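ok so I'm stuck.
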Amino acid sequence: MPYALLGAVLGTACASALAQEFPAKPIRMILSFPPGGGSDAIARPLAQRMAKSLGQPVVIDHRPGANGIVSLETLARSTPDGHTIALSNVGPIAMSPALQEKLPYDPVRSFAPIARVASTQYVLLVHPSLPVRTVKQFLSLARARPGAINYATTGVGSTPHLSGELLKHLTGIDIVGVQYKGGGPALIDLISGQVSMYFASAPSALPHLKSGRVVGVAVTGIKRSAAIPELPTVAESGVEGYEVDGWYGVLAPTQTDAARVQRLAAVIGEALRAPELIAAYAAQGVEVAPASPEAFAA
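replied:
not stuck anymore, here's the structure
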């Protein structure tokens, strides 16, 4: 057999063997935020379906801090064997690199994109004691009390933070951001009245809206959320040009074997086509938004 052909055959066989042997142990899925937030709601149903397909448990590992930067630094330093992945969102992947000069990772060079998973709107929530039920009422109150209304965020450069900053930019109001490690802690302080408002991801907002512990004012997307259609968008409430949407995706460390990346991408793609998962996401205000490794990388 010619050497070139022999090399091709051996290369194909090795790639096939790698794919067949993988995974050889549980998959560790790092999350960027604490339990109780949007990433938790998106990751757990996905992890369950992945585990069934892979024949290995997919173990959630929360690594909150610095708007998700801690989690992606952990991923970047992990062994690139496909057994450690992360589900993160637009904040630490795209926003933080645009806002901070130095990060412990490069969003392009440090990771192997596996798949975009989902997108979700954010919900402008207020504590029930705040005398507002519409965006117009909120803006009037904020203008009457400059610097007196605080809002929770999940870190500098996070989607909730920039949602508040965009509202300030477009309306001229003066509200003050208070930083938390994630949506769970932010919601706890909103419910207890430690902060007055919070832009929460739809999955984390819905249970508390239904219980009446917080009040929903508007959603941040370009259209109303199918899960809470009674809430108008911020834009249709009079703030022209306001739109915030958040996406989530799965990454591996750079230099992870391409066959393993493709295997994980295929398993995630299969999970995202499952009617049960689509329905579970929709009930939480989440839209399935799959993308291949190549499309996600772009």
